[in-house]
Write a structure and sequence with these properties.
elongated; 12 helices; about 5% strand; mainly alpha; Arc Repressor Mutant, subunit A; two-stranded antiparallel sheet
Length: about 325
């Protein structure tokens, strides 16, 4: 009989290398493609940072992908991204605190002050020295390389340095005296909040009612859920409202109307509204009375004893003309 020929290779045995399924059952699955142009290298210390927010990480990646000299001011970033100016400013502060970004105010030789931004792809690491760009050598044709003369031997002069001899690093030149002077950014003084209003006569019933109003705010606005230690500090302000004959429903409406979303600090928000929306005290009955009318003195009419003409005088007698005639006759 003829010897049987084996044409197909044997099947791989279970458990052999290369046949197990390495696809995870849950979580992310990476489909990676090698980049050959238009990419930036980002370290996991930035991409997986446990303190930076997602906006700060994305902003750091965007800044590191820009070429040198690109504008990265707050106005430029606000026009580029849909986030607000406040969020971008907060993200830049996060990057500065973690060492990924450094902004300084420098004065140019012409006297103009500008903001200089420095981006670090790895904070804390020494930046490598910038090497001079190597000249691109054009490859010679294969025919010329074949018939090229042999290279000359190196000159065995005393100045020749063997590859095993370590070379000393070149000294870094000191900064020139004409370097721009850094000017610190101006900071405005922080405005102190106004004091909380205080009642003139804080009775126990007044303070108890004020505490009940503050504790009941969470039923009408869950965003204003106050801590237990915040209520005693806000009670005098609500007591000042009650002392001015303000109804509890009016106080509740003033504190819960048109709330912003979200309310980050309920105690500070309630304190601000208690202070800024404080109504004036009600006027008394004497203040609401009409002003007294001015008394008008009316001089009565009199008939002249001589000409019987009417004239105004307090006492009867002669008019002005008759008194002149009488004086001339006398």
């Amino acid at each position: 009989m003829a010897t049987p020929q084996v044409i197909a290779p044997p099947c791989a045995q279970p458990g052999s290398p290369g046949t197990q399924d390495v696809t995870p059952t849950s979580g992310v699955i990476h489909v990676n493609t090698r980049h050959v142009s238009g990419f930036v290298i980002i370290g996991n210390h930035l991409a997986q940072h446990h303190k930076l927010s997602l906006i700060a990480i994305g902003l750091a990646v965007h800044i590191q992908s820009l070429p040198a000299g690109a504008k990265v001011g707050i106005k430029v970033l606000t026009e580029r991204f849909p986030e607000s100016e406040a969020r971008i400013t907060a993200a830049l502060h996060e990057l500065e605190a973690e060492g990924y970004l450094h902004r300084s105010r420098v004065r140019l030789p012409n006297g103009r002050v500008v903001t200089r931004t420095t981006s670090y792809n790895r904070p804390g690491a020494d930046a490598p020295p910038v090497a001079a760009p190597a000249r691109k050598r054009t490859p010679e044709p294969a025919l010329k390389a074949k018939w090229a003369p042999p290279a000359p031997e190196p000159d065995p002069s005393p100045t020749h340095i063997t590859p095993n001899t370590p070379t000393a690093p070149e000294p870094v030149p000191a900064p020139a005296a004409t370097d721009p002077v850094r000017v610190p950014a101006p900071t405005a003084p922080r405005k102190q909040p106004p004091p909380l209003p205080q009642p003139h006569a804080p009775t126990p019933e007044l303070l108890r009612t004020a505490a009940a109003i503050l504790a009941d705010l969470r039923r009408h606005a869950p965003q204003l859920t106050l801590k237990e230690e915040d209520i005693p500090a806000l009670v005098p302000g609500v007591a000042a409202w009650l002392e001015r004959d303000v109804h509890p429903d009016t106080i509740r409406h003033a504190l819960t109307d048109q709330l912003p979303l979200p309310v980050k600090h309920p105690a500070k928000f309630v304190r601000n509204r208690i202070t800024t929306l404080l109504p004036p005290p009600l006027p008394g009955s004497a203040d609401l009375a009409p002003p007294p009318r001015r008394k008008v003195i009316v001089i009565p009419l009199q008939n002249c004893d001589t000409c019987d003409r009417a004239f105004r005088a307090t006492d009867p007698g002669h008019c002005g003309d008759c008194r002149t005639d009488l004086r001339q006759a006398a």
